[in-house]
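sorry for the late reply, my laptop died twice this morning and i had to redo everyting from scratch. anyway the thing you sent over, i finally got around to it. pasting the sequence first so we're on the same page, its 323 residues, then the predicted structure underneath. double check i copied it right bc i was rushing
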Amino acid sequence: MPSLNLWRAFNAVAEYKSMSKASEKLFVSQPAISNALKKLQAEIGVSLFKKSGRGLVMTEQGDAIYELVRRMFDTEKEIERLVASLSAHETPSIHIGLATLYERFAVEDILFDFAKINKNISITIHSGNSATIAEKMDDKSLDLGIAGNIIKNNKLLFAPYREHEVFLVAPKGHKLYGKTTFTASDINGEKVVLKERGSAARFSVDNFIIRNNIQLMSIVELSNIDTILNLVTIEKCIAFLPDLSICGLAKERFSAAQFKGEEKIFFSTYVITYPLSEYTRSKRQIVEAFLELVRGKNALNKGPGHRQQHTRPERRSVYAHQQ
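ok and here's the structure:
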């Protein structure tokens, strides 16, 4: 099948009945138009034009073919007009992956931040633990993620977003209930309900346990905060939960304590993106605007006492699992 460029040359000559005018309209030389016609006729085995004095006229075969070719390029123009119209009225859309903590406790704040960029943005939220969000970014099913940097990936970019503190939660009736601080010796040998692996909070707790050489008895690993709190109440054991998830904690049922050491339990979250060159123009503008918003917030929050990031812990077990 001849290329579209050959048919385009034929269409222009047939429309303007002149190779010189066709060359002007297509911004190519007249010899290029002449060569295109020769190549087209050779490929299809049909004579499209014949000489008439100093000009060209179409043959019957050429006239029949031109009718279809003209429709084809008319349709092309209609498509271009439609795309331009749709693009002008298109609602910008973006798929965001949120770590479970944000999806439940801070999604309205994040949506509010995006509304500052453009109130007409169509946002689809996907949730999961930090490792899941990073994996979804890796397979290109998300446009942007907000999660902990659990999985190192050189193809993704990580911009600092927020920092969170993890608290020890104890139920009423437990020896640590009512305490506002605790030490490593206070919890050594205690039963604990853990957040699932892959969450940034769990990663920071593992790091904390290893640094302080603490032994705990893990009952189970869960992702749902309500289920963790219910089990903590039933088993009279402890749990480690992030700040956002304990804001509405019933004080008559639970207490929250900080580590009484130089290093409390922290974890950082990040805005995870691709290199900007990989986005479409409209999505790149949204991502750039959101990153600029985040950078502005972080600049206000940073001060002389800004805390340094913790290092990654060793990969070894620190829990004795109950059978």
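The longest helix spans residues 60-89.
thats about all i looked at so far, will dig more tmrw
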